[in-house]
Fold these 2 entries.
Entry 1:
Amino acid sequence: MIVDWFDTNLVSILNGFAIGSLLFILAVGLSIVFGMMDVLNLAHGALYLAGAYLGYQFAGDTSSWLGFGTALGAAALVGLLAGGVLSTMTEPLARRPHLDQALLTLGVALVVAELLAISYGNDVLRVNAPPGLDESVQVFGRTYPAYRLALIGVGLMIAIAVYAVVERTTIGALVRASVADRDMVSALGVDNRKVKLAVLGAGSALAAVAGVLGGPIYGAAPGLDETVLILALVVVVIGGLGSIKGAFIGALVIGQVESLGRALVPDLASFMLFGALALVLIVRPRGLFGAKAAG
Amino acid sequence: MSTPADAETVATRTRPVGAAIGLLVVVGLALVPLFVAPYETTIIGRILIFALLAVSLDLLVGITGLPSLGHAAYFGIGAYTAGWLTINVTAEAPIPLLAAAGAGALAAAATGWLAVRSGGIFFLMLTLAIGELIFQLAQSWESVTGGSNGLYGIPAVQLAGSPLVLAGLRYWYVLAVFLIGYAVLRLVSASPFGAVLRGIRDNEPRMRSLGYSPFRYKLVAFVLAGAVAGLAGGLLTAQQRLVTTADLGFTTAALALLAVVIGGAGTLWGPCLGAALVVLIRDALGPRLDGHGPLVLGLVFILTVYLLPRGFAGLAGLRFRRRPAEPA
């Protein structure tokens, strides 16, 4: 029975993992910046979209490792720079209500998305997977795009890398301490602004890289920024602010809801997303792995 | 409870002047169809509708201290309800509007109990997520909403059996409902209930220790705001006789919040001015910029945050002690 069920839904389950992988890369930066600085970066989706268009720019015409690699590098660089700019822009607002910072990033998101729409038009643009990954492989007797399998692997690697950096290094300890008590870290003589700059830069770079990685699946099109922003927000809310483990579990859950849920009960997909959100928040108002006193 | 008292003093001090200006504005608005061309009249009607949405959002953002980025959802639900009823049941005047307000309230109650458990930025994020889920629902539920094609071919609203086809008549209908909706929110804001909402905004623990249940008050405010947003949505249907998913999308929600912030949160009249600016940029300037109005709106957003932290109301010299802030 169960084996049959798995066999029928294998493709959906694998898709769920691929989406979850992508969502984790997106959400982890959002979650840490939010947990640490209370900065809700609503430009996160726009950064993803910028990454997707970079993917089109370098890997839109032909399938090549050079093009895809260049796109990834360019996205990381653009993301880092954008994170720096956002950090500088929100700095004068540090003493103002957090809502102002969110509104500022919302304005930036509108401007960036519109500039991208002006430059690239309204069509869905294609991003090619690198050679070797643009074919299908056999998984338990079913054909499945190799790229998505690779994406699951890349997501896992990034998860392990982020986890190792944040949980096992001095810099990571600083980030975790800032999530727990920003003022205390500042009192110990650490410049909060530098930590914020670093985290916002890294988070934004991850968002732009996710845009390139998601390109071969979703392409690049206007409106994608909102879709991924919402999914990433739901992941962060479910997982808990500032928690890497939370972002990981949340991304896996939402990935399956988006893929397996859509496949099993297509009409109720939106309800299921809301249902998952509501369920977690009733049981754990701060998310699965959120700190009790945070917020 | 010092801030509600302060706000009350401000309101009392400015009441005669404010009332005179208000009356002049209402008379001016009522005369619009007599002196202004139909197209411009329609634009002003759109401003009124968007202003009603913004004022209902101000009840949450400015008065209760709950910044919502999903408020367009209840606006859109009202619009779809009114549209569906007008097509399938009746176009007779108050019914689609009342149903729209009811649907907005119901949807707000169904989602608000979850959202108002949180506050501050967390609330912003939750309402954004909820709004987007309702947007997706509208897009996939094609048998009722028409999906991405929208709900079109909606008959003109009827008043006592005769359809309001002329732009001027339709405008007066919109204006009358706008004034009723605005008056309701004004009364709520000036009532003891409004004072409790301000108290919750400024110091929630203290209100709780005084014996008020913040959850209940916030939920009632949320449902009320949803009802008025639904009413505004019903007006939208009456005005443009077409509902699309864009009307309840993220951009509409963000622009409503922009209207509130740029006008001055917590003042109710400020967001109306904000709405006017937003609609003028989106609907009047936008087409001239090849539909890239959002670019200008994004820039306005950024400039507002830096230059006008208290909105137009701040320019008018009305200083409130602080903007609705989230608990630290």
Entry 2:
Amino acid sequence: MKKKSMSETFRRLTESRIFLPILALLIILLFDAIFIPEFFKIQVRGGDLYGRVIDIMRNASTVMVLAIGMTLVIATGGIDLSVGAVMAIASSVAAIMMNPTIIGVELPPNLLAFINDPNFTYSPLWEVILVTLAVSIVCGLWNGLLVAYMDIQAMVATLILMIAGRGIAQLITNGVRIQIFYEPYSFIGQGWILLPFSLYIVAILFLITWLITRKTAIGMFIESVGINPKASHYSGIKEKRIKLLAYTFCGFCAGLAGLIASSNIKTSDAFNIGKTIELDAILAVVIGGTSMSGGRFSLPASLIGALVIQAITTTMYALGVPAFALQAIKGLVVVFVILLYSEPVRVLLNKVTSEKGRPL
Amino acid sequence: MNMNKEDLLVEMKGISKSFPGVQALENVDFDLRTGEVHALLGGNGAGKSTLIKVLTGVLKPDKGKIFLYGEEVTIRSPQHAQELGISTVYQEINLCPNLSVAENILIGREPMKRGVIDWKAMNAQADEILRRVLGMDIDVTRLLGSYSVAIQQMVAIARALEIESAKVLILDEPTSSLTANETQQLFSVMRKLRSEGVGIIFITHFIDQVYEISDRITVIRNGKLISCDQTASLPKMELIVKMIGRSINELDDMENIKRKMADNISETSVLEAENLGKYEWIQPMDLDVRNGEVLGLAGLVGSGRTETALLLFGIDDPDSGTLKIDGKNVRKFSPTNSIHLGVALSPEDRKDAGIVDDLTVRENIILALQSGQGLLKYINVQQQKKIADEFIRLLDITTPSVDQPVKNLSGGNQQKVILARWLAIHPKVLILDEPTRGIDVGTKAEIQKLVLSLAEEGKAVIFISSELEEVMRCSHRVVVLSDREKVGEFSGDTEEHVLIEKMAGSVT
Amino acid sequence: MSNRIKSFINKNRQYIPLSATALLAVVAYTAGAILYPGMRNPQVFLNIFRNNSYLLISAVGMTLVVLTGGIDLSVSGVIALTTVATAALLRGGMNPWLVILLMLLMGVALGATMGVFIVYLKAQPWIATLAGMWFARGMCFFISDDAIAIKNRLFDIISRVRILIPGVTELSAARGSSIPYISIPVVVSFLVYFAGIFVSRYTRFGRTIYAIGGNEGRNEQSALLMGLPVNRTKLLVYTINGFCSALAGIFYSIFVTSGHGLYADGLEMDVIASVVIGGTMLTGGSGSVIGALFGIFINGLTQTLIQFNGSLSSWWTKIVIGLLTLLFIGVQSLVARGKSWRARVEMMGEEEAKHYRRKRWLTRAGVVAGVVILSLSAIFLPKLTNQEGFGQVTQSSRCVLQAYRREKVDEYVADGAIIVYERNGGSSCIDEIYAIYPDGLIIGDNGNEIVEKQVTVAEVDLLMAGIVDYGWFTDELYDTWHIPCGQCYGYYLTVVKDGHEKTVKGVDGGTDAPVLFWQSLSLVKAIVPQFDTSG
């Protein structure tokens, strides 16, 4: 009976977790298509693609990177508030490695002149990236140890690094906004290979994470730990290790995001980088449908969530809404999301969309 | 005592309540008189907690009526029940441990002086209440949480009576965390209250206490009212028989299978526990199981059966003794290690420690198998489906598909999924803690048959159940526990009453 | 004797974290007073309260929220919104008292709205208040993009009035030292503080707050079952915090004499840290408003110590506060775990129990001591050993900043200049000095050439007024210094007015220089002439 299978598919579609975020994104894009001329126009310049839509994706890349890590952490039933601070630490480490005169490293006089040279860096790029990511992994480990092994509430434990982290970041650079002149570094955030380079970073990270979580048991274990830690323990899953893994990975993502962000502004701004971005990341995951209490997660849905946030931002800019109003609008979006995902509304929606859900 | 209608505080008539797949209560009557301690007995999942939830407004019955002081009432909510004078003191004290004793008793009605809380008066009042109502004398300014559970319960009772003017007091497992002395204190309070006309429903699993304090005993089993008798005219043995039940069935052919298998039981033990004990869990005991054998653990609730199972599965380190699997000493006690050694545990509370409810049937089934293989060797979805299909067939699990979240299945099918999970690792020793609890009759029989067939395959099974007849039917040997101690070991052919005596503890 | 001590400790177990904080405060302040003679001035002590009065008000409200097991992330947004709205309304000529009243009402409304979301829509507190913060900050910019200065007599009075402390006044006068003073905001903040203590201890509302929080959320259930007005109380608590945020915002705007949407950035974290350090657990139900003062005090004390140390950069404050927060949270979780522990110990044998107890206390004491020693030594060690502390930079081969040309400046001032502005450093290693005279003459000297420019008297007056309005001669403008980056400049600005002369210095890229310093500089930069070869 074709009709029945269609409604069945429709129901399956609407009940899937990724439905709402995609719907939201489509609504916003539809709005853009109608009200903003040339929103979807894509230009080709010098062999690369440009356009508003590309912009949305590029600007969302830091949040997307963060959202990937944050999704895993939230799926284990926790949360990581320190990602912004870790971004700051990462950017400070990177900047210091490329230009260590700030901390008094003596450069031989012949090199001194090159400090502002776009081709000069004190340490090779691969070393910079490696060390930065290593440091951010350590930050993630710290969080994981506090939460998984010392049994401190996730919100509280990551709050500590959130507060102290910025101090550490500023300490590394002695409080100075170090300007980064090294060209290849700025390619991370500003480079273009047909599409913005940062998108490739997101794509590769997503691919690797997807492979790790869905082609190994890690994804299922994370979900199991988030849904029922006790049953997981009884089934032989080492929940402490799983949680540690999640937080460490989140730290890694934050480091990556820090590299992208600081290369975008060509500065290591320990004070401002990543300020409040953790909230964007969490919001992206929430919009993506992963429950705050842990359990089933969906990486693509979180990415869509990040895109939704950025799409709203870009739409506002395109409409000429001044930057400040954006924050207020974000606040309203959160309000809307809260309403949508809240208990009373969920119950209502369930009644409307499903049959009398009867257990079998 | 005469059965005067005016003496009736509470009357529940023909209460029925069902949940998807399970009939929790079927046409149950219950009544409570003024000035009486009425014990309510029955195993876990027997239905007594459901009955209480109906009385306290947590659940609404499908059928039946409730009368309070002779008038029919509909109890809308826990708040409403309180207003009607029905108060419950749970084992999990519903007070605030971070406030002082005096505050816990009087919060919401603190004495005020000129618009400000009068602490001195409040402390004095609380002190007076405790003395008058309970005969207790403690420092009411200390935080409630700094006192033992026993004292906390007393405070909860004081609040229930004084503040909420309860006429019906429900005590849910009040003595589980009390010492003998504290239990006596509680009993003298209960006697006092009884003499003042309060009706007390006393839910417990301690038979001796029931005989010490209660006036009447009601037994509920499998959702049905079994009996309601005066305590004085019910011998202990008869009571236990009522509680653990006589079998209704037709599974005598299982007895034959059992006898046949007895010949195939190996000589050596695959699991050997020597002097194994843990503080507050169980006293040190010896236990062993052989391949092809079903060892039953019998005992009343609270006798330590689950704790024994947990220790054998390695959930926690023991305080004393050794555990050997296949002759080798277990050094590291963890579920992961136990799985590697081939020991599996199906836990007592499947909702709490068993099913991962949002995960699908196939994921739940392969969960332990996967954890044994490690993170990297992933059992892909195709393989998961294959394995799951195999067990769905084997155990006759009812589910529309393997991709159904386990929470949508009925209790019986959920239990089967958990069994499948452990069967999937092909264990040497399978420990089943209450595998038939809260399950319909048909599935119960299936599971019992399964237990025997597992032993037939050569596995060693430890079978725990509150229903003695089940244990007797399925086990080759039975270990009896009482009060967290091993008190006897019998062959599966022993007469029931011998075991019942041992289970009851003191000889009557 | 030891039994009595033990029972005393048992009875007041909940006050252990608070006592630890108080002890820490005393120890740290004493150490500071010993090492830095400047700290012995009682005014320094009072300044901690003067500079943090708005934080104290916010901490009181936040403590009440945290006690219910919730959290309020919106405070910084509401404070910022209050400053902007206040400035705008005052600029529009509204009566200042009316403005204050309106702001308080606004705070109440915002708090109540968030409360409704949390209580009736069952939203998680952090997400609802986060939305509130975004919304509030966004609203700031609807009002104005730039900072709006506050020029109002009432506000001016409030900020300038010095309140003398009876008793201490006479002592100081007798000793001949300057008389210590506090300000109106301090008085108000203490009033709020005592009101908070009163409410939390002596009203039913306050006790219900305690009943709701803690015990991992089970308390809320219990409170409901006990018939307490849980929903109403929770709603009220967020409303009150909204009020406190608005009040704090009013005082903040007095403090910086302006309003801007970027103010109070990250302030909610400072407040939360202070609440935690003050002994209130984030899980709720345990702690007290009393602790809020100590938490704020430690926050301010840390900043003061670092300022006096001079060789440490001010962001050490954040690290130290982070460490302290960690310490207190760690202690809190140990105390919490101790509860179930205690029941177990009660059942152990005497000997075993004693052994375990001792081990536990030792580890706890060890951890506490370790962190305290680490933090204090980081702050004090450099001074003690006369070495360059961690965080210092050696002067090396780069453009060494020229010293502040004190004598040249004095020359200009003696000559009648009222503003002297020096800038040096940068990638071309320059050193420029300008002098501005009251008659409109501006002279610039960069070591190679001299330029001159003539502006009107009115322009100079305007410039001077602007700088003074930014609070040049108040404590709000102070020196900050760091070794500058390669392209960064060092600035010195000297202003002379009515016989007072004050110089403030700062460095490019320094993130803790007072915002108004940069604004003063830009006023000056706008008016001075350029050199032909300026870098």
